[in-house]
């Protein structure tokens, strides 16, 4: 039997996709690094006797079938599924995604040992799943795999998404052995998922907040997911007059960089004036992007999040209005495009309470916590009961090389995940 700790599994992939320029990891979907990780996962799952396949939407499934199941297709219906993703943001941390995948493998090992000793009797099959393009770092739409699976994104739109080099998702998918005609809502795959559980590094300071820390300032190792903040992405394209940096008088310019600069400041002011709102400009692309060139266009990507979907919509409307005024002041124009939008998710309360009861056997103070980060579990929540476990991240920093999980907490995560899965199997 293959038995590995989560820490040894994480150590085995610690060199894959390191970003020498940004620090941390850059593992864009269907790139060399992410492909290496997908192959690593498939090999690890196969070594455990799991039945590995990739579905029409690029999601990997590793099946731990019921012992003695004769009709596997039938016995997989309503299975317990756990997993996460292996792609990363540019210059991301080691844990966002891979921790959930490695923990699922390690939890499987714990459960397989319990089954072998006769201590675990299962009522249903289990699968570990790996979702592609959770971060949307390459094609712009986060949770692309789960959105395709559930039909939350139109496959025609998905196929036409482009990466920074102009490659369409259709071409990249085809180059990776997938049939672009096969993308879209997959009823058969959805009937296989009875419940979905995702373990993830915590991406904020919830566990280390005053409400949960002990006298030494240390929070519990784990939390249970409660809600996911509604969030979306928009692109604001400011267009002006491309021109020569040396010959164009300051008064004669229509410089979209100036509009973008004012926009970034306005975004902060607008979000800061609204309780619980978060708005970010983390990506800016001047075209053509030359030091001695006044840009002809600047694309600015906006990420807005708020617990109330109507407030998110109001904030974006407000920001769009500001963009139009700023553009006009600079002699420029602006176009707004919505790239994705996800409403606030309330995880299934019955499942969340069951998870809490299981987790608290080993981590007594584990709280239910909201998160501002998006996840495939949030997309799947529209279809099946889903739940999440968060592993303590001492600084709360994420989407950064400094993202961190302590070995003991990762281990506690696996023990708790194994207990959660056992109770649901
Ligand atoms: C993904 O991690 C997101 O929340 O943007
Ligand atoms: Mn993630
Ligand atoms: Mn992430
Ligand atoms: Mn995420």
From TrEMBL:
Gene3D superfamilies: 3.30.70.360, Zn peptidases. InterPro entries: Amidase_Cbmase (IPR010158), Bact_exopeptidase_dim_dom (IPR036264), Peptidase_M20 (IPR002933). Keywords: Hydrolase. The keyword Hydrolase applies. It comes from Paeniglutamicibacter antarcticus. This is Allantoate amidohydrolase. It comes from the Bacteria. Pfam families: Peptidase_M20.
């Amino acid at each position: 039997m293959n038995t590995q700790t989560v820490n040894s599994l994480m150590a085995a992939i610690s060199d894959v996709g390191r970003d020498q320029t940004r620090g941390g990891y850059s593992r864009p979907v269907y790139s060399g690094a992410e492909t290496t990780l997908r192959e690593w996962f498939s090999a690890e799952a196969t070594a455990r006797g799991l039945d590995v396949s990739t579905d029409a939407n690029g999601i990997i499934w590793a099946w731990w079938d019921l012992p003695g199941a004769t009709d596997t297709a039938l016995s997989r219906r309503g299975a317990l599924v756990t997993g996460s993703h292996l792609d990363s943001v540019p210059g991301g941390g080691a844990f966002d995604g891979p921790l959930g995948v490695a923990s699922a493998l390690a939890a499987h090992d714990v459960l397989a040992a319990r089954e072998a000793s006769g201590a675990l009797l299962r009522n249903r099959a289990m699968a570990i799943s790996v979702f592609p393009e959770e971060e949307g770092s390459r094609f712009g739409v986060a949770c692309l795999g789960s959105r395709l699976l559930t039909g939350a994104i139109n496959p025609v739109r998905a196929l036409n998404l482009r990466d920074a080099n102009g490659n369409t998702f259709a071409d990249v998918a085809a180059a990776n052995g997938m049939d672009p005609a096969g993308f879209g809502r997959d009823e058969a795959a959805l009937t296989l998922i009875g419940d979905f559980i995702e373990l993830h590094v915590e991406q904020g300071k919830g566990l280390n907040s005053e409400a949960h820390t002990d006298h030494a300032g240390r929070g519990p190792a784990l939390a249970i997911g409660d809600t996911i903040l509604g969030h979306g992405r928009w692109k604001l394209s400011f267009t002006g007059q491309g021109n020569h940096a040396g010959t164009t008088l300051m008064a004669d310019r229509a410089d979209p960089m100036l509009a973008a600069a004012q926009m970034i400041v306005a975004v902060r002011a607008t979000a800061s004036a609204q309780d619980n709102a978060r708005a970010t400009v983390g990506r800016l692309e001047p075209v053509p992007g030359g030091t001695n060139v006044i840009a002809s266009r600047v694309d600015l990507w906006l990420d807005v999040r708020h617990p109330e979907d109507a407030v998110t919509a109001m904030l974006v409307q407000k920001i769009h209005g500001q963009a139009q005024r700023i553009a006009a002041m600079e002699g420029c124009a602006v176009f707004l495009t919505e790239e994705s939008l996800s409403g606030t998710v309330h995880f299934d309360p019955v499942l969340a309470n069951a998870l809490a009861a299981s987790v608290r056997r080993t981590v007594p103070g584990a709280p239910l916590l909201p998160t501002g980060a998006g996840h495939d579990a949030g997309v799947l929540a529209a279809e099946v009961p889903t739940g999440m476990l968060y592993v303590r991240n001492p600084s709360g920093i994420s989407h950064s090389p400094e993202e961190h999980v302590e070995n003991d907490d990762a281990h506690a995560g696996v023990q708790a995940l194994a207990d959660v899965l056992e109770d649901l199997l």
